[in-house]
Design a protein that fits this description.
three-stranded mixed beta sheet, binds nicotinamide-adenine-dinucleotide, Rossmann fold, alpha/beta, single chain, 298 residues, 2 domains, six-stranded parallel beta sheet, N-(1-d-carboxylethyl)-l-norvaline Dehydrogenase, domain 2
């Protein structure tokens, strides 16, 4: 693929390694973040520093954003010094943050008014997926624009076309519903076992061998038994995603009672000061409700 100039906005846990892969593939990266130290880190990897989203966009063929939430994406693209104030018509815009599908559609409509094609392209696979370029990338927007974006997205992972603008974010919301449910199921299974005096290792072994098997329990069950809730994906981010799920359900008139319950349980996690822990720490919420502790084996 011909080398491009790519503006990369949002250089955190995910954005920094993703921009690194783009540079390794031969592209020129112009990097911007609200935190100067985050820019310096990526400049140390070979990028050029950008002064604002507007300035980054003015110099780029493609702009990628990887910021926390919907208001951040609105600011990055729509503010006075935002991407749309600087981008030339035809500049390809890829928002890879996890945000509301409704906001994704709104920003893409504004981009279209400036002649800039835009895709929503959120990811799953976490920090490991970002570092190893194995992210699953869920893409919404015009299918022809998707074809144009594939060679760039493939540098960071595996893109799947999901449908019209916002569909990538909708699929990501579906992903986060299922992951939350699996963690809550794991938490309730382990706490019931603790209350009834069954060895939690037996529970994990047996559930993993049958219809109840989930990757969530395979990866995080054994760590929960060691009391290890160091974050892969922070609970406060999953709480943000459950807010997105509920907003989206309201916008489309979907009734999602289990997601509402998951939202409450994650609210309790934040209220107890566990937002910086891994989302598997929902085990601690169920332990608290049941006044029980899953025995820790170190
Ligand atoms: P992070 O907090 O590590 O990084 C976000 C970066 O964006 C920070 O450096 C922050 O300073 C910057 N930023 C915030 N507002 C900005 C603005 N207005 N302009 C420019 N920069 C701004 O977060 P992360 O873990 O890299 O997550 C980014 C997105 O990816 C989130 O939407 C998250 O839900 C999603 N995601 C994360 C993971 C994961 O495992 N970490 C997995 C899948 C999806």
């Amino acid at each position: 693929m011909e080398a491009k100039t790519i503006g990369f906005i949002g250089l955190g846990i995910m954005g920094a390694p993703m921009s690194g892969h783009l540079m390794k593939a031969g592209h020129k990266v112009i990097a911007y973040d609200v935190v100067p130290a985050a820019i310096e880190r990526v400049v140390g990897m070979g990028a050029t520093a950008g002064a604002s989203p507007q300035a980054v966009a003015a110099q780029s063929d493609v702009v990628i954003s990887m910021v926390p939430d919907s208001p951040d994406v609105e600011k990055v693209y729509l503010a006075e010094d935002g991407v749309l104030a600087g981008a030339k018509p035809g500049t390809l815009l890829l928002d890879m943050s996890t945000i509301s599908p409704v906001t994704a559609q709104k920003v893409a409509e504004e981009a279209a008014k400036k002649g800039c094609p835009m895709l929503d392209a959120p990811v799953s696979g976490g920090e490991v997926g970002a570092k190893e370029a194995t992210l699953s990338i869920m893409v919404g927007g015009d299918p022809q624009v998707f074809e144009q974006a594939v060679p760039i997205l493939e540098v960071m992972g595996k893109p799947t076309y999901c449908g019209a603008s916002g569909a990538g974010q909708t699929v990501k919301a579906c992903n986060q519903i299922q992951v939350a449910m699996n963690f809550i199921g794991m938490a309730e299974a382990l706490v019931l076992g603790a209350k009834a005096g069954v060895d939690p290792e037996i529970i994990i072994k047996v559930l993993s061998a049958g219809y109840a098997q989930t990757r969530v329990m395979d990866v995080r069950g054994p760590r929960a038994l060691q009391g290890d809730y160091a974050p892969g994906f922070k609970a406060r981010f999953h709480y943000k995603d459950l807010n997105i799920i509920r907003e989206t359900a309201r916008a489309y008139g979907a009734s999602l009672p289990a997601s509402a319950l998951a939202h409450e349980l994650f609210t309790a996690m934040i209220a107890n000061g566990w937002g910086e822990l891994d989302h598997s720490a929902v085990v601690k919420v169920i332990e608290k409700l049941s006044n029980a502790e899953v025995p820790v084996k170190r």
